[in-house]
Amino acid sequence: MRALLVFLCVLVTVMLQGCCVVNQRLADPRTMKFPELNFKIPSTERVVLECGIPVYLLRDTELPIINMSAMVRVGSVYEPAAKAGLSGMVGSVMRSGGAAGTASETMDDELEFMASAVESGIGSDMGTVSLTALKKNFSRTLQIFSDVLLRPDFSEKRIEIFRRQTIESLRRQNDDPKEIAGREINRAIYAGHPLGDITTFESINAIKRQDLVDFHQRFYRQDNMILSVSGDFDRTALLKELNSVFKATTQSTTLVLPEVPQPQQRFQGEILYGKKDVNQTVIRMGHLGLTKDSPDIYAVRLLDYILGGSFTSRLTMEIRTNQGLAYSVGSHFDIGRRFTGSFIAETETKAESTGKALNLMNKIITDLTKEQVTDAELYAAREYMINSFMFGFTNPASIVNQRARLEYYRYPDGYLEQYRDNIAKVTKKDILEAAQKYLHPDAFKLVVIGDAAKFDLPLTSRGSVREFDLKVNIPKP
In what order do the strands lie in the sheet with 65-72? Predict the structure, then answer.
């Protein structure tokens, strides 16, 4: 009898397991339900040093490491057009050219010995200096960090090394068709604005050491920066050390940042062609977009995802999956934080399908301005944007830097806390209105790099074509 009961129990268990397996096999991931994601944005602390510098703090003792960054209100938009490349040279040589009398080679050796890192750079509208150090080596690394930030030596030797590297890069600037297209679409969209300026042989050779010194002294001031610190630190000891390193000083001049106007919104189409003897055509099209201050940014975020910002976007599904015209295709709204951003759609296709790809891209973009997106598209885009939000807070350094950036770019209070709710409120009508407002296919700046002799349709069928010479700005031997 006992053996029979054991057998029956085993039989029932096997049957139940079999049912579970069948249920698992029948489960459809598209219909599965999950509990609502509850994610709370990590908090940081904001303090102000005695010298007036704001500092964002986030303590994390998981590893004996400290990360620190300085964000400085500077950028390539402030450099003279005749000396384009100056800000990039300053940003690089600040670190590579030694500081406070310490030779660059000595600094490199000491940082390597401590397993520390200090890096610097300047983008279009922000300069950064950062450090990473073991907790035990933080004090010395902080001193090097502050020297690089405030007291760089700008070694002539390192300036010349940077100049030669830039010149060599310019010699090869037309080797890659994608790089050509990226450069030229940006120049076309931001024509007449500092964001459209590019470094040339003439401009890089016109830069002298004193230009670097003057540029640095004008912008790298304690009243023109924000600091962020994360990692394994003691709050009281850290603030005492920061106040000791960044001492209160009296500036001889009042900080006045140069006035840089917004790019002019000219919705006027243009076709630019660069001849390159290649089998694949590189296509870039776009125009100016919007800034973070626009109330439409949440609708544009979802529009971005649906049109060309995902692997299931309209551009990808039709041009790549259904038509097989390209391996990579997409689009992106780069929402401007200080200056008006851009919208750019891009792909690469074989020369013989250039016209077909161009027509299809234009049609897909135009269709979005005529009809509302589907319920499924809105749901997928909204779910992705809301659920991927947490990945912007993957480590303490990214969290504290993000908070500092919000202040740097003057985002409104509560931007992060309200972001998901604002995304959830977007309707299909909102997306259609955003598409009609920010997408103008007839006014695209179109850049095509390839061999026009192989195109299935002539570019002239789309309008007047301006060909640019890829040999311009190449120095004579």
Answer: 45-48, 54-59, 225-231, 65-72, 127-134, 117-122
